[in-house]
Amino acid sequence: MSASPDPPAASARNTRKAYAADWAHFTRWCRMQGEAPLPPRPDLIARYLAALAAPPRPLSRATIERRLSGLAWNLAQRGLPLDRGAPEIAATLHEIRRALDRPPARKEAITDAEVRAMAGTLAYDLRGLRDRAILLIGHAAGLRRSEIVGLDLRQAEAADAQGWVEIGATGLLLHLAGGREVSIPREAVKATCPVETLERWLGFAQITAGPVFRRTTRDGKRVMPGRLNDRHVARLVKKTVLASGIRADLAEPERLALFSGQSLRARRR
Question: How far is it, in rounded angstroms, from Cα 98 to Cα 102?
Fold first, then answer.
């Protein structure tokens, strides 16, 4: 098969800039593998494409195919046409399409008892208080990761807020985007009560306005003003699932694949 033609004139500059970045990424990957990028070898290109699709952060199918086009164009400029139909490349692309076009696996739901066990693995420093509140509030209300970290202490305080909290004598009321409200009652056992854990975090962190869940310093001794990134919720779930021994019958990679921030939303009792 012939190499990719020059990009259309109207978008040539941006396309060639992207293709240059594709080539730089490929050559860097080759150096890390101890391989020479030239001359082009179908088996090496296939390995590179497979690496782009590998967990934990696979690129989208469209991005991978765009990068292959970038490699083909760069090689053509060097007088080295790439046969994209070579068996190694074609087979790898087929597997990538099958894997990335497949609907994502449903994450394992977490039970009430399991989330309490997960919370029990956390320390009682500032970071532990915050993370305990994240787990218990997120699970009790069935919140998305972005909704958890998007909570503010008061109404309409920040442009990136996704809701605000109202703490009362009988429980907690979450006012979420789109007018949705979720009520969480106080529980008898204070150590695992979502409302009590949130109050402890807010009190020790001395948060009186702005984002409810914030970053802490590396030593966990001071609270930073910035809102917590929602990726922290996914990492927290995975870490505490392992620490609490949930689904210990499975190997660690399988356990990690089963649980994510989404697991807080799907409750099993």
Answer: 6
**In this structure, are strands 214-216 and 223-227 parallel, antiparallel, or unpaired?**
antiparallel
Q: Which among 202, 197, 148 has a CA at the least distance from the CA of 177? A: 148
CB 237 within 8 A of CB 256: no
For residue 54, give the DSSP letter. Answer: -
Peptide bond into 39 cis (omega under 30): yes
pTM of the entire predicted model? 0.61
Tell me: pLDDT of 253 over 70.
yes
What domains are defined for the chain? 9-100 (1.10.150.130), 110-268 (1.10.443.10)
pLDDT of 268 higher than 80: no
Give the span between the Cα atoms of 80 and 112, in whole angstroms: 60
> Average pLDDT for residues 46-50, to the nearest whole number?
93
- Distance, in Å, from the CA atom of 225 to the CA atom of 151, rounded to the nearest integer, reads 14
pLDDT of 4-14, one tens digit each?
A: 455 445 456 77
Mean pLDDT of the chain: 86
Q: Does the pLDDT at position 83 exceed 60?
A: yes
Residues 43, 115 contacting (CB under 8 angstroms): no
Structure tokens at 182: 């979720």
Sign of torsion over alpha carbons 25, 27, 31, 37: positive
Residues 6+ apart with CB under 8 A from 120: 192, 244
Handedness of CA 95, 19, 84, 88 (dihedral sign): negative
Residue 62 burial (10 A CB sphere; 0-12, 13-18, 19+)? exposed
